[in-house]
Amino acid sequence: MTSFLRxxxxxxxxxxxxxxVYALTSAWYPxxxxxxxxxxxxxxxxxxxxGHTLLHLFLAAVxxxxxxxxxxxxxxxxxxxxxxYMPLLFGTFYAQIEYLGVIFRDxxxxxxxxxxDLEAAIFGMQPSLEWSRAWPWPWLLELMQFAYFSYxxxxxxxxxxxxxxxxxxxxTRWRWSEAYIRDLTAVMLTCYAWYxxxxxxxxxxFDYLGVAGTIASEGLHGLIxxxxxxxxxxxxxxxxxxFPSSHVxxxxxxxxxxxxxxxxxxxxxxxxxxLLCLSIVYCRYxxxxxxxxxxxxxxxxxxxxxxxxxxxxxxTDAPRPAxxx
Length: 325
Hints:
By secondary structure, this protein is an all-alpha fold. The protein contains 16 helices and no strands. Helix 5 runs parallel beside helix 10 (about 170-195).
């Protein structure tokens, strides 16, 4: 058994460890405030302190054991599964913010007043309100909603752009892909960890906060993607996951790796990412400071991973057990 586990070590990736640390750390939060689950309309069987802890301990064990086994024995398909499994779980960790976000801060008491005052001091107004009021054009709203919607595909876009890069061989693309997932996982999980302690709702809830109504209540309506985003937010929008913007920070990772590895795709990828950044303000999903903080957070985390995680441990090409130190 010891030999088997030792043989798996070269197949483990840094983002496996990121998931393990996040799962183990957040496993214990509900014990600090068991009433946090009361914000859920219909709590599931694992949405209680013991169930949440057991789920996270199980996930940590899975992250530690299963991905290395899949990468080692699964061939090309196993490498793909071992590459993309963590981004596929982002939605699960994001959804947990609904109750983890009220452990340290009461529901309905976010940090929005601080950011509202900050924006008023910087701009003399609320940009997330005044921009859409100044340009109340349905076609612009639709374009911005499309850009905002594109966020859900940015993790895949990042991988596709890497594999469309010209002048790179297959081992190099695998190394880039693993480094990209390393950065993306680090950025997203640190955002989720931050939201637990600093919940911010965002301008989308200005009606609740007593600042203003929604875009729709002011007579501005879009078309297809506006309706799509309204439906998505009706199904899964959360309070408290706005600062910094994970839309900006996460998509920035894909943009950066696309810029770095595939120069011929820089133009359209930069336009799309730029529109996405603008859309979070125009559509009243985020404050401008959320946008700035998202860029800063993404840049900081990527700089730290590049500096602290050695290439040999972050992205090796098809490592063999004999390669283990």
